[in-house]
Amino acid sequence: MKKLFFLAALLFVAALSYSQPTSKAMLMRVWRVSDGDNVSVVDSSRKVGFNIRLLCIDAPEVNNLYSREQPYGQLATLQTRALLLGATVLVDTFGRDQFKRMLGRVYFGEGVTDFGLYSVSQGWSWSYAHPGAGEYLKSLEALNKTAKKEKRGLFGLKGRKTRPETWRKNKMGSPREVLPPGV
Questions:
Q1: Overall fold of domain 8-172
Q2: Is 163 annotated as catalytic?
Q3: Is the pLDDT of residue 66 over 70?
């Protein structure tokens, strides 16, 4: 048991070495948490703000226009809100995804803890491949495996756990049509 704990701690420390903010990181405040892997941030002047899709993590889906709620979606969202909502964070951005969402990493707790690494290590989200993620993705995958093995977060709860990517493919179907009111 001590070896397993030591290995998990070593993996987390190794992952942190790939998670230092870059020099372009911006100091922002989280004003909204949409779900476990999407947050909205604003600067201190409240003039600059944007939505961030957290890089390389995928949390269970919550009800929205495009998909039905996935089991544990609200729980993962609540965990994210508890840590990030209202917090001053460092935000590193890395371009946009195929849906034109800003991709980024968010550092909380005095700007030293990468939320993606934390969320995956605690079992509240899965690692999710993004092109060019390299060593960061490898760190997330190792933490994901450890969280699952140790039954942390969602993995410690009853019921079948389905990766959000698989859930979207199987349960979502095509996006719901948006109809005008009264139609």
A1: OB fold (Dihydrolipoamide Acetyltransferase, E2P) (2.40.50)
A2: no
A3: no
